[in-house]
């Protein structure tokens, strides 16, 4: 063991979620169902928005991109986690670990900007309805999408710059089921206090700032709706409630990971599971169940896929 402390680490070992075979089998069924359901639900939203002309609007363009991001972020962690449930020795190579971190942070950064863009879209639609099509034109939508990917990629590359050249020469146990920066940095052979602080500031500031921008925008929208609309306020508030629910589901675990000074390993794992498996499944459910237009579009797509031709 002492000799191992001086060897260069080429792989990392996940301690996983449970040691009991029965619990791992239960987790396999649970995670597989949620992963398949989230992939199917989000893929169907993307397909529905692309194929139904009634949904060719800025709101659904952004929603389809959010669903694509949910597919990506779930696929960055869930398949490996499900596969590892049947492995006694749960390992990932150093290069694989870095790649996983890159995708998690880049896709997470894209989702943050997309949620801000969706909040802006709802603000314009509710507070400036007469100028909606002028402001939220196709050029604005593409600009939001490009900005989201630029911010996501830059955020991820900055994070990786902190760790890619760190020396790992002994400890290689990760108390989790996927690679992420806070735990990985602690395994380095140098004093990483400053580095941990910089990573927390980087990810923590981005998530907290985005979260407060969203909350402030939703407050402004709600106040505007209450002042200027009485009859149509229920539909607007119903749409907003779906957006707010998704924001809380996404930002809650992320802010906890990067701003909480000391946390429980079990709570970290629970929130990581929620963020990686449950949230991508809940997003399409929330947006479809709270949106009558989306439900109507889904019915039309189902009819087309089943070969049903309505008479009228």
Written as H for each helix and E for each strand, in order along the chain, the element string is EHHHEHHHEHHHHH
The tally of beta strands, per DSSP, is 3
Side by side, the strands of the main sheet go 2-1-3
Distance between the termini: 76 Å
Residue share in helices?
Answer: over 70%
State the gist of this model.
With 312 residues, this protein is mainly alpha-helical. It is 73% helix and 3% strand.
Can you give a write-up of this model?
With 312 residues, this protein is an all-alpha fold. It has helices at 21-51, 58-75, 78-84, 94-127, 132-135, 138-163, 181-186, 193-228, 233-259, 265-289, 292-305; strands at residues 11-14, 91-93, 173-174. The protein has a 3-stranded mixed sheet with strand order 2-1-3. Helix 1 packs antiparallel against helix 2 (58-75), helix 1 packs parallel to helix 10 (265-289) and helix 4 (94-127) packs antiparallel against helix 9. It is globular and about 60 Å long. The N and C termini lie far apart (76 Å). The relative contact order is 0.14.
